[in-house]
Amino acid sequence: MAIRKLKKGECKDIVEVAIQFENCEVFTFKREEISNIFLHSIRKNISICLNAVIEDYEAEDIWFVLPLEVANKKQKIFGFGDEQSFIERVENNKDITHFYIKYNTGEEECVSCVWEGDSDFYNPAQVSKIEDDEYFTISISKDNLRKEEESA
């Protein structure tokens, strides 16, 4: 689905955000559970493969913030099996691939994360941390690579 421009005076409110990982696991958060979300410099990519045209939207910078108590809630992986918190999942694997944003209009948009490196399972552009014992933050950006190089 193409990202649609809003008309003058029109407003779409986020209802929920689903975060998808490389192995198709998904964690979904309702608007009330999210402290902040920021997807910056979203660009449209078009790929042509054999007989298919693929349109994809990718954000250069993503910042996602949850209260620590929300990020620590356990849920079953794929709806069954062992339980894991969002923090455990993110900290064990740096492999978030997409953010699905659902609006009060019923529309849904999918935005890919910038992905760096050669691995299909590890994205060094993804950084997460606990802030002030109150929030769990995720940043996905090429800037994270530069910061890592500068501190080395």
Question: Could you explain how this protein is built, in words?
Answer:
- By secondary structure, this protein is mainly β.
- It has helices spanning 68-71, 86-92, 143-151, and strands spanning 14-21, 26-30, 36-49, 52-67, 74-76, 83-85, 96-103, 108-113, 126-131, 135-141.
- The longest helix is centred in the last third of the chain and has 9 residues, at 143-151.
Element layout with pairings:
Elements: E1 14-21, E2 26-30, E3 36-49, E4 52-67, H1 68-71, E5 74-76, E6 83-85, H2 86-92, E7 96-103, E8 108-113, E9 126-131, E10 135-141, H3 143-151
Parallel strand pairs: 4-8
Antiparallel strand pairs: 1-2, 1-7, 3-4, 4-10, 5-6, 7-8, 9-10
List its salient traits.
152 residues; mainly beta; eight-stranded mixed β-sheet; two-stranded antiparallel ribbon; 3 helices; 10 strands; 13% helix; globular
| Structural class designation | mainly beta
Helix content: 10-25%
What is the overall silhouette?
globular
Number of helical stretches of at least 4 residues: 3
Radius of gyration (Å): 16 Å
Give the percentage of residues in beta strands. over 45%
Q: Quote the average pLDDT.
A: 90
Largest sheet: 8 strands, mixed
Query: What's the number of extended β-strand segments?
Result: 10
Low-confidence stretches: none
How would you spell out the order of helices and strands?
EEEEHEEHEEEEH
Please give the alpha-carbon distance between the first and last residues: 41 Å
